[in-house]
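Input set for joint prediction.
Command: fold jointly, output tokens.
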Amino acid sequence: MESQSVLVIGGGIAGIQASIDLANMGFEVYLVEKTPSIGGRMAQLDKTFPTNDCSMCILAPKMIECAGHERVHLLTYSDVVEMDGKAGDFRVTVLRKPRYVDVEKCTGCGECAEKCPRRVPDEFNVGLAKRKAAYLPFPQAVPRKMTIDAESCLYLTKGRCRVCEETCQAGAIDFEQQEELVELEVGAIVLATGFDPFDPGSLKEYGYGEIDNVITGLEYERLICASGPTGGHLERPSDGKVPGTIAFIQCVGSRDVNYKAYCSSVCCMHATKEAILANEHYPGLKSFIFYTDMRAVGKQFQEYIIRAREQYGVGYIRSRPGKITVNEETGNPVVWYDETIYGDAGDPERRVASMEVDLVVLCQALVPHSVHAEIAEKLGLMLDESGFIAIEDRLIRPVDTTVPGVFACGFCQGPQDIPDSVIQASAAAARVAEILAKKSKELEHA
Amino acid sequence: MPKTRVGVFVCHCGNNIGGVVRVPDVVEYARTLPNVTYAEDNLYTCSEEGLSSIKDQIAKQGLNRVVVASCTPRTHEPLFKRACEEAGLNKYLFEFVNIREHCSWVHMHDPAMATEKAKELVRMGVAKACHLEPQQEFESDVFPAALVIGGGVAGMSAALGLANQGIQVHLVEKEQELGGLIRGVQTLFPTEQDTDELLRPLAERVKAHAHISVSLGSEVENVSGFIGDFDVSVRADGEVEGLRVGTIIVATGAEELKPVDLYRYGELPNVVTQLEFEEKFKSGGEIPRSVAIINCVGARIPKRTYCGRFCCATAIKNAIWIKERDPQARVYVLHRDVMAYGVEIEEFYRRAMELGVRFLRYDVESPPEVLGEDRAKAVKVQHQLMGKEVILPVDMVVLTTPLVARDDNGKLSKMLKVPLGSDGFFLEAHLKLRPIEFSTDGVYVCGAARYPSNIPESVSQAYAAAAKASIPIREGLVRVEAITAFCDERTCSACGNCVEACPFGAIELQQGRFGRTAHVNTAQCKGCGCCVAACPSGAMQQRGFSDMQVLSMIGALAEEMTGGVG
Amino acid sequence: MVSGSDSPGNGFEPKILVFACNWCSYAGADLAGVSRLQMPPNCRVIRVMCSARVRPEFVITALSKGLDGVLVLGCHPGDCHYSEGNYFTRRRGLLLRKLLEFVGIEPERFQVRWVSASEGAKFAETVEQVTEQIRALGPNRPRSEVLGTEPGDR
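tokens >
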């Protein structure tokens, strides 16, 4: 039986945009998101290049529009466990994980989180801060409903506590809640599962995990973000000092046949952005970006790089550093690199150089989300060599996967930035509409 | 006129408000306010219980205004508005007062002051509510057809994206055939297939489609109207045809920059652009034995700062093409960064290197020099990574130039009332989240008209534009939230300030009942209020944010001030 | 609670009217609340869709009715949800300050600031700062009280 409903898997900006477009086009949309809130990676960013728009400011209205749309049905804190069928007629089983909170009663007031005694590393803040077992992933979470994490909750693991239950005046805590399986019939599926950051710990030469003041790009984003764990104060890990110099290392794990052969596309730009933000927050701060090719190919991107150089004094050094050591006394990382362009760092003589800085930011590769292998198996679709969702014919059908009726948009099908993800999301909506097209006369209402 | 009967509902929000603000005192106080018929407190006004209570009291008390004092309107306003509607009360007779985010949560250590503040905020809210008027959301019909301007890959894909949904599309193409820019390209990257393999079936599908009417050799001459109802004049063969459409997609593409005065182009016969290389050599010319491809010609320079995005890929494509036909050929790509972003293009780049293509990096400050008297014989370049000058003997030089905006973009931009960016390409509504829309509703852009993009990107954009352009048509009407501006023609002096002030071009001076006055096109109005503040006579007002309403809030706030002129 | 007629240093609590735009500054104020950033309770927010909605008449009315200060908050220049609104606000703000000075009201009683939706802390700081600045100016007293004349007297 042909269904006019659509399943969107992944609640980041691509999934949100696809859902809004599909809903506006008249389809019923089921948006499944594995974390308790939609928003995805964009919610973790401070600003976005090249406009330096505050990320949450432009994301939040979209999240609200998506969740508030009468044709969008959010299934957050849920996973897709089964998928079967074909274009026009897919049968999907979604597992709704128990939040232990009755969402009908929960008003998101946050009192349970206030009183919860259990602290665990906060995923949203990439481990730089702690959250409670009863929590809201971030202040602007949509839906604004609390979640109790079964793995850390004292009651659910050890049978103690229940303070949240006492505190909640709406009576929304429900430790008896069970997981729920929801069966859906949809006509098309849109994948928007995004990416995960690559763990640069495998590159021993860079000392991530060993040297305190070597952090990843995503960690830096959380530190510089006004609503992050340090309120936007760039406090380096070892001593909380504000760095006077920062080295950004590009292509950590990317463009590297030992790890990921591809280019992650957005790192040149996000490093530039981060360097600009550092200088904006701390006018004396000097940043150096160690790059191979400065890939600023989008609209207004070159102008952004020029601004970074001229207005914010960002230094660009063409080199892929060989290793990072540490000055034990100061905790300062030392970057060792081969100066490929003479005179780049202001020193025309040396070929092997070292630079001691206060902080190193590794711009790590961005890799396909770990859930892809499962999805590929369930749907029988192909992944490319790098693990991204394979596109059947990129030139003519750039959002079609190898399975008819299943589309992929955003980073899950290849490294790309926010505008490209949003474009692909809308494109996927159009493709869905094409394959689910009603007979022409049904459209005649004018 | 019925007496104003205001109902006030003050929320405890569990302890969030009630733990700081003395909610019962606020309710007591609300009862003393003029026009307040009824006031109560709720544990959670947004709960089923709270909403039911609102609906009940509207009926029981004959309330004709509702004020809820609780959290921020940014989350629950639609919820309460719906409750009012369900109880038969126009949803624009509802006012929200924020006593949580703006009060109890930020004055936790001063319950007395927080309570006083909450009372004042409620007093202000009630004052505004008394001046609210019922509103109907403006709806205007959408004509169920779309116009696509431009029949290249983007335009054709957009047309198909719409037509396959059952929507009638008019595709207007200036040239005598479909295909646009890629007609000049022989093979595509990274698949290396013949362009024809892609282009011919695409054009066939477009021409054969029942819902697409193609006008070749045609140009758009005039556009009037607004989303849902555009009147378009199209000129072809000296004749003008009128079209009526609901939405418009701009897919007019761009042009290859001809690098006049650069690298002796035009002077030496064997210095050519990429498109010229495609045309002259890839369909049967002699393959050069030694080629220097120079990238960033006329791009990423002070005069033209942007990057052509896919030109590196084009250079790599043609470098590989030469090497595959003659593995002994010497191919040099002189670049300033290799923009092989993503998965496939990076792989393509690696392949080129494996085939023996040599990539040399040069600095914008020391560009290459083409040497030779009546033919290019060699290219001299400061090799940045070797730190010395090299001379490459060549028998051809290919210049990789970026796409540049078409000259007629200006004309079209004025017709459609959409802006161009500083580089001449069409400027979208928002670079990040609205990349293929314009601030002007109902008009969309895709492909190189917006910015250089390769085929997959252009096609994605085209499909995205099709999705956006189909929404008003599928909906059948355009509905606007009733916070729009309107002009009281009796007091309008046609000064035109509002016309200037409106960021969306939604206001025009027109002949009306009271002479020449300002007229707001409600379908285009976004409800910002810029025009209202710009109006010297107060003729322009904003529904839900009128001068009267705001001034009443100011008056209510200042009521107990013992200072002031009164 | 009586205010406006006390002199500074006598526990005078200024009453400040704040206009906040829906998309940026109102959201920033919300975030300050969500983050439980404590601030002085002297401000009263009126929500508008865009800071450009605020006409000089609002500011002058507020001050002439005895409110001690008016603060207009908008999106950072370049970030206006309606593209240009905050540019109007900025220009009007500059002119209005000059006008206030001309009629004898301290121009510092009227301020325009930019707060984005993610700047909860900045909102709180702004409220603190402006409250203190206006507190230091003392209550906004009408000419009559200052000069000991009646309105209309020369």
